[in-house]
Each structure stands twice: as C-alpha cells, then as structure tokens.
Amino acid sequence: MRCNVSNKDSVDAGGFQKQCRQPARNYTLRKICPVRQTDFGFDMIEFVFLFILLRRFFSESSQLIYLRVVVFAALPISSLFPFLYFMVRDFHIAKEEADVGYYAGFVGCSFMLGRALTSVIWGMVADRYGRKPVIIFGTASVVVFNTLFGVSTNFWMAIITRFLLGSFNGLLGPVKITTAWGIGLIIGPALGGLLAQPAEKYPEIFSQDSLFGRFPYFLPCLITSIFAVLVTIGAFWLPESLHKHKPKHSSVYDPYEAAEAAIWTSDDKLIKIEIDESTFLPRKSLYKNWPLMSSIIVYCIFSLHDMAYTEIFSLWAVSPRKLGGLSYSTQDVGTILSITGLGMLIFQLFLYPQIDKIFGPIMVVRLCGMLSIPVLQCYPFIALLSGLSLAVMLNCASVVKNVISTCIITSSFILQNRAVDQDQRGAANGISMTTMSLFKAVGPACGGAL
Fold it and tell me: What is the C-alpha to C-alpha distance for residues 188 and 77, in angstroms, rounded to an integer?
C-alpha cells in the first residue's frame, strides 16, 4: 500500500524531481494513507505492519529459530518417560504390575523405529531440496501425531501414533545443535512430570469429568503441540542453509567443460587452459569413509546404552518398592530428569569446550566410556538409601551419568561432521540417524523387558 507525496523542493544533481514518502514519525499513518477498517476490528495497514515486524523478527533471529527447533525436537522424546509407566498401566494390557515395564518398552521404541526407517530418506530430501522444508514438515507432523498420542485410548493406538511421529519427524538429520537439545531435556521432563494426570494433582483446576480428566496424559502433549505450531510458523522465515554451488570434486569428467575452458584473445589466438582431470575423480562412498563410519558405530553403541538407561531409570524410579523400585511419582521423576538436563546444559556450555580443547574429541570419548562403568555400578547401592540422602545421591549420579553421555555424543557429532564435506552432511546424518535410531529402538525394548 503506497502513498507517495510530491516534494518540489527536493531535486537531485541531474535536475530530476524526486518522490518521497513522508516519514511516519512526522505524520500519523491514518492522515497520510487512510484505509478502511476491516471487519475484524483493526485497520489493514496495522495488519501489514504487524506482518512486516514478525517477518523482520524471524529473519534477524534465524539462529534462535534453529535453537527452538532442536529444543522442540527433544520434547516428544524427553517428556514421555516421566509418565510412560502410568500410561501403559492405565491401558490395562499388562496382566501383572511387574509386566508394565515390558509393554512400556515397546511404546518407547516405536518412535525410534519409525525414525530409523525414514532417516536416510529425510537426509536425501534435505540434501536435494534443503533443510527448511524438512524442518517445516517435521514440526507440522508433530502437531498432529503428538496430539493423537495424548488422547490414546489403548496400547496399539499409542504404538501407532508414536511410530508415525518418528517416521515423519526428520528434524535431527538436517539440524543438530546439542546445546539446544540439552535445553529440551530440561523442559521435556518438567512438562511430562508436572502436567501428566492434572485432575489428580490439581483437582481445583481440572475436574475428573473434564477433557484432561478423561485423558490424563493429554495436557503435556497438548503443550508440546502448541509449541510445535509456533515453531512451524517461525520456520517459514528460516534461511536455507543448503547452497546450490558446484562441488569441489565433480563425479564425472566432462570434455565439453574442458573445451569451454579455451579463451580467444583479441588477436584471434587460442589460449588453452589446462584442466587437471584429477579434480573430477569420483567422490569416495560414505560407507567406505572409515572416520565417518567408526564415529557412527561409537555413536550408535552409546545411543543404545543411553536410551536403555533412560528407560530403565524411569521405570525403576516409579515402580513400587516391593518390586525393587523407588515408588516415585511422575512429578518426582520429572524433577530429577529436569535437574539432570540443567546440569548437562551448564556442563556443555561452560566446561565441555575446555575439555575438548585439552583432550580432543577422540580422547574424550575414550575417557568417558571408561568412567561410565563405575558410575552405573553405584545405582544398586543408591537404592538402599532413603529420604534426603537418596534424593541427593540419585540426582548426583544421574547428572554425572548424563554428562558422560553428553560428552560422548557431542564428540561423536564433531567427528562425524569433520569426516565429510558440507554437501554430503545431510546424507551422512541420515545414515547416522538411521543406525542410531535402530539401536535406540532396541534399547527401550530390551530395557523394558529387563
């Protein structure tokens, strides 16, 4: 909507008359460009300016949007574990209470199984069409399937919705920012632990006859879906990180390109530009890239270990004392996992860069792998404690264990990205996500069975 005002006093050096807009600070928009008020109660010019401001905000803070995307990607995973045991118990599929963990493992692994079957595809799509459409599609799919998971009425509906949620969620292939992932590990458990079963925890706000009383695990899923809507809208202003430039090494030697490298001078003399055919050698296959594959193998092994630990820890904490558990509530588990996520975030922001600078990613992986053994051996002795000592030692052990996992996973990310060129990172991340998801799918199933 333009409103040009003629200004006779402003003439440039060539004598041409300029047209200028009167600045908004001198005149109100209504006096310069009066517009008809819409039926929604505001002027169209106000809507246009609001749109421009939103677009400017999102375009200037694209890195923040990427951070929000990764934070959001962690929520469907991390918010599940505080209430998974109680959700499967309420499905009444387990004949005995001791079998609840067995069925909970299948719900936990269905997400990773779906991701394993589609990660390579999402990586190829990201390499060809860009990261932005993959991110938008992934965030939009979470709105649908995560909401459906929250209103699951039986075991198989929960399995199917989690599987579809993982299949259409190709976020972590094109975008991996582990600091933001740590933030998601703080928010997710807090959502799952504090907002699950709201009619029992907050009866003065939510009644048993309300929607959240009939679907006690819908509220944390709904909050995640609302956040997904906001992230989806913001993702439209993300700049595309994939640049369509010519790769350093072309896979084919083109004789026409060599012919076009000849230059004719003004004297009709042909100057031949020599092209080194070695620059057109085929690129090495990703599967034959040993630095990449070795880092993926290490990443997958510790991903299985970490996922099995998370599943076992959550089920062990909420199981009754008579079955060897701690009889914790969803709120207690959510608090422990949130404190753990906060410790991981602080460590990763302030301590990990210094440790990586001193030892390097390879040595960090080796040291942390050895340290994880004695830490895990402490848990049977921690279970013998009670009261404040139990809470303190359990939180400390959980923080140390997850800090070790963070070091290993972050170092693996660094090694993977160093092993490939920029134009192959999407496919490499797809391979990494596929194998990692397969291992993570095995982890909850085995952990739940044990």
Answer: 8
